[in-house]
Design brief:
The structure is a single chain. The chain is of the alpha+beta class. The protein has a single domain, classed as Hotdog Thioesterase (Thiol Ester Dehydrase, Chain A, Roll). The chain is 20% helix and 30% strand. The protein has three helices and five strands; from the N terminus they run H-E-H-E-E-E-E-H. A five-stranded antiparallel β-sheet has the order 1-3-4-5-2, sandwiched between helices. The model has no long low-confidence stretch (mean pLDDT 87).
Length: 176
């Protein structure tokens, strides 16, 4: 990776990300070197991206095995019914700049780095709560495919997903 790209990532701020979640680290998140295990970062990617897809793009991750989603009684639902696409992870990458560990509270930020006709490359920034310096910047790519064939459909991703993703497309400071 080019040095200028690493420097750009290393200078990321919370305001570069339009969607945020707070995560409390857990004791068993630490590895034998007393910092957050690499697999935990992948779980953070999965959690924030899928939360955004559910909240802002009408996705229902449980529809694969339960095609008729049910919302919790008394709770609002943003789940869209009627399409047969799922998002598959095809690539992940992390650049680490500093360590975090239990009992840190993390502020995780999300934005869309690239939007294709059937794919989205997310960028995730991890910050220790109360600190300005980014600790890790990662990329995570989903390709939206037809559930039955596991292939990209003719029209690319569905309209509701694209519209939700466009809100985060390199848009620092977007509020939700």
């Amino acid at each position: 990776m080019a040095s200028s790209d690493i420097q750009a990532k290393k200078s990321r701020k919370r305001s570069d990300y339009g969607y945020h979640q707070v995560h409390q680290t857990r004791w068993f998140d630490n590895d034998m070197y007393a910092h957050l295990n690499n697999t935990v970062y992948t779980a953070l990617f999965d959690t924030i991206a899928n939360a955004y897809l559910i909240e802002h793009c009408g996705r229902n991750p449980f529809s694969v095995n339960n095609p008729t989603p049910k919302s919790t009684p008394g709770q609002p639902s943003n789940i869209t019914i009627g399409d047969d696409q799922i998002g598959l992870i095809v690539s992940t990458h992390c650049d680490f700049f500093a360590s975090v560990a239990f009992p840190d509270v993390l502020d995780v930020g999300l934005r869309v780095a690239k939007l294709g006709s059937s794919s989205v490359t997310w960028e995730v920034g991890v910050f220790r709560q109360g600190e300005d310096d980014v600790k890790m910047v990662g990329n995570y790519t989903h390709v939206f495919v037809l559930r039955e064939t596991m292939r990209v459909g003719k029209g690319g991703m569905v309209k509701e997903v694209r519209e939700g993703l466009e809100k985060l497309l390199n848009s620092p400071g977007a509020k939700f």
